[in-house]
Every structure is written in structure tokens, then in C-alpha cells.
Predict the structure of 5-methylthioadenosine/S-adenosylhomocysteine deaminase.
Amino acid sequence: MVDVLIRHCDVLRTEGERAWVETDQDIAVEGARIQAVAAGGSLGAAAGEVIEARGMLAIPGLINTHAHVPMVLFRGLVEDVSVESWFNDYVWPLESNLTAEDVYWGALLGMAEMIESGVTCVADHYFFMDEVARAAVESGMRAHLAWAVFEHQGEAQLERTAAFIREWQGAADGRIVTWMGPHSPYTCGPDFLRLCARRAAELGVGVHLHVSETQAQVDLCLRQYGLTPPALLAETGILDGRALFAHCCYPTDADLELMAARRVGVGRAPKTYMKLSSGTADVRRLLAHGIPVGIATDGATSSNSLDILEQMRLLTLLEKYMGGDSTAFPVGQALGLAFEGGARVLGQEQDLGALQVGKLADIALVRQDAVHVWPRYDPAANLVYSSRASDVDTVLCNGKVLMRGRELRTIDKARVMREVAERLGRLNQRVPGSRIATYPV
Ligand SMILES: [Zn+2]
């Protein structure tokens, strides 16, 4: 008898730029993996848990390739300001208030939001990451965790992040993967980046950092070091192993060739770019070079939500609109980024990104009976352009049911919201001069 049997669902398939749906299928889950996908009713009706899913669309769990999950604590607190002011007047002063316990409750709040919107895996980049790891263990989500470190915090803090990697790599039955997390080339100089690269190589982990978010950052790097940010990262050894670039909105052609020759993936968060008026629409340039691209939310202080369906829709629309080409970025390509693209960015394409036998059972079941997705000529197009996060009914990660019928099983949502509410009075204070780092102007 299998552990979980999902019966009579429709299964979303993607390949290249093509997406289609196989109707009336059963999915059997044994342990952490998909054991069988077969015609509806053919796998019997006996299982540890049987989920009748007729009319629902089964999709691979959505992958968030760059976030600062606990920043949900500051959601809605920083609006209508410049990028420089966003960092220097708001975010970095606000973050200097954070305690380890704040981060834990913020992580659980963000994970509840992600599970409710069908996200099963997140690449998070933040502080007190042992607390985020604890939240991931409890919530049941898959998490690629990087402890953010700035050069001014010194080598001792870098060693603390290395100790986090030693302690947590592969924890929770492999659900937790760790990365080295220098913040960015504009807050970490070449010597510090070299040290990070060396530690990452010794520990056998990748490096996740912010790269070329704005043209001003690229210009600063060229002035300081005579190199673009990706070229500086190559020169310091950061690209000798796997690397995850958050944003990379302003790569040169030479950068793209360099990235394509190394193991570099890019996480794109278009809602943040549109809101901060900072990014570009050039995902097709990255894809043309064969560079893996995934969808991301960034932190909810810039994007206000951790909703990958929303980011996928915005990314697709932005590519069409800014590219002046309505035929660009077809439905299948958008879905390919959300699933297979995200898995490739994280180096987990063997295990994630498709509902196939042998892959990890990270699955979301999406309702298709609401008026906003009716009629249903093309379920894949509905998912890209019409579905809402609240249509997600049931979520599995690593074979465990984390939400069913929109009831979260691993997170006490009312308690998390109460705990967060009690902290707001202290967290929203900005003490003049108190700042976790300084954004170069
Ligand atoms: Zn970020």
C-alpha cells in the first residue's frame, strides 16, 4: 500500500516551450517520491491517505529561486521610495531590529503564505538562518538556505555562516540544502569574495548572491575594479562552483558567455523590478545562452507577496510588453521557467520540476472550478494568466501532505499571526544611524 494516492486529477506536462494536460490520472506517492502516474482508477483505492482530486490540476510544486522570507515582517512598510532610500532609510535600519526569534516567526509566516500558494521549495537568503532552517523543518518545505554576510561584518561572521552550513547541509531528509551567502559584490570586496569562494569549495556548496540588480551597480563595479560584477565573481573564484545570481538584470554579452560556461543560474523577480523601477525584460537573452532561469519573489518588503504564480504572470507580460512582441514567451515557456527552470537553477533538475515517476513528490493540486478559470479551453493558459494563489487546494512536499482542502497541517497560522503582531511595535522602529549595512549612492 502506497503512502499517498491522488486520484482522478489532471496532470500538467511541460517540455521545451510546449505545455499540455493529461486528464484523469492517478499519482501514487511512496516515501518522498512519485511511485506511479497512471490512468485514473488504475492504481486502486488503497493508500495511507487517499485524495480524490477530480477536476483539479496537479502541478509540480512551485519553486521560489530567490527570497528573503522573514522580510514578510516588514510587508507594506516601505512604499514609493527610490532604491537607495529603500535600503538606506528603511530596510537596513529596520533589519537592525531583528532578533533570532523574530526571524523564526517571520519565516513561518512566509512559509505559510508560500504553501498556501503552491510553493514547495524556496532559495532563501537572510540572517539567523538556523532559525529559518528550524522553520523549514517544522513547515515541511524544501529550503535552499544561504546565511547573508557583508564584508564589514568580518571573517568571524563568515565563519559563523560556514558553521551553519556544516550543521544543516542535507538536514531534514535532504529537504535542507545550504549555500554560502555573501550579500553582493557592492557590499563584499574581492578579498572577502575570495575567502567566501574558498570556504564554499571546502564545504562543497554553491554561492547565492545579488548580482547586477541595477545599471548603477554595474557602473560602480567597473569604476572600482575595472570588471563587471560577473567578471569580478569569476576572477575571485566564486564561479568555480555552482552559483545562484539573484536578478542579474544588466549582464553584458561577455557576462552571458561567461555565465553560460559556468554553473550559474539566475532567479528573476519582476514584481520587485517594476515596483523599484530597477530591472529589465531580457530573460530571452539569458535563455538564448542556455543559462538556467527560475522565478523568484525576492523579499515581501519589495514585492509584497511570496506568490510565484503572480511573479510568473508578471514576468511573461513584461517580456511580451517590453520586447514589443506578443508572440514572445508562450505559455509553455513561462511554465517551463516556473518548474524545470527553477529546478535547474538549484541544481535539482534530477529530482524536481516535473510530475514523473522517481522524482520527489513535491506536488500542488489547483482547483479549476472557479468562475475566473471558466471555461477551460486551455488549462495551461489558465494557470499562467487566470489562476489565483487561493485556487491551490492541496500541497505535498517530499511526499508529505502540508495542506489539504486549504487547511495547513504543519503551521498553526493563528499562532504565527499573533506572534508576529506582538512584535510589530518594536520592528517598525527606525533608529537614526542604526543600519545593518550601507547601500552605495
Ligand atoms: Zn534579494
Notes: The mean pLDDT is 96. The chain is about 35% helix and 25% strand. The radius of gyration is 21 Å.
